[in-house]
Fold:
Amino acid sequence: MSDRRRSFVAEPGDVGERADKCAAARLAGEGATRGDVLRAAEAGRLWIGGKPVKPSYRLKLGDEVTLELPEPERSDAIPEDIPIDVVFEDESVLVVHKPAGLVVHPAKGHASGTLVNAVLFHNAVDDDDEAPERPGIVHRLDRDTSGVMVIAKTARAREHLKEQFRAHTIERVYEAIAVGAIASKVTYDTLYNRHPTDRKRFSSRVREGKRACTHVAPLESFGARATRVECRLETGRTHQIRVHLSDAGHALLGDAQYGKPPKDPALRAIAEALGRQALHARVLGFVHPERGEVVRFERPPPEDFTRALTALRERFAR
Structure:
C-alpha cells in the first residue's frame, strides 16, 4: 500500500454515514482533510472492498474503506516581512487583527503583499502540515474590511475550524456604518447567489442559491443620513453584510461596489476620507480546536473608522 493510502473498517456507529464524511472524520488525525477525501472520491480513489464508490455511498457494517490521498497542493506564496497585529497565538491557532487594505491570500492581481505571505514569514503554519493552496486560511475578510481573523496552524485545527464555519457555530459580530436611517432591529434571511448580470457581485434578490442570514441592530443614529449598526452573522457568504444592507437600501458608507456616492456633500466627504467600506469584524468566537473551550476575541474599529464616526457625530448627531 502506498504511503498516501489510508484504510479503516466501518463500525456500528458508521453505518448509514456518507463514505466521504465518515472517512474525513475517521482519518482526520492521519492527515486527511474533508477536501482531500472529496477530491480522492471524485478521482475514483475511494474504495469499498476494493471497488470505487461515490462520495455519497452509505456505509454498511464491516465495509473496508480505502482512500488514496491526493498529493498536497503547496502554496506558491513566499514569506514576506509584513507586520502582523497578533491578538492571540498558541500551538494550534493564530488570531490576528487584519487592517483594511490587506488582501488575505494571493490571487490574480495580488501575487504578493498578502496576509498569507505575512503568515508564512511569521512561521505560523506547522512545517509538518501539508499546507493547502491557502495555508492556514479557514475564512476571509474583504480587502477593505478590517477586523479579527483566525488562522489555523495545524491540519487538525484547520479541519476543526472549517467544520465550525460549515455548521455556522462561529460567533461573528461586525460593526458598520450604513447610509440612511435604520430605526430598529431587522433580520435579513434570504437566498444568496451571484448577481444575475454582474458576476463580480452577489445578490440576495435571486430565485436560487444558498441561505444567507444577517441580524442587524442599530447602535447610533445620525438622523436620516446614516446609522452605526451591529451585524451578527448566522451564515457567512461572500460580501453578505454589504449585499444585505445594500439590497435593503442601506449600502455601507464608502462601499463603491454596492453603493453610490452620497448626495449630501458632507456625507460624501466623510465617505471619501474613509476611502473604503465602513465595515469592521469586531468579535470572533469559536471552540478552541485542542482545548474544547469557547474562546472569544474582540478588537474595536481602527482609527479611520473612528474618525468617520467622529465626523458624523459632529455633523449629523442629534
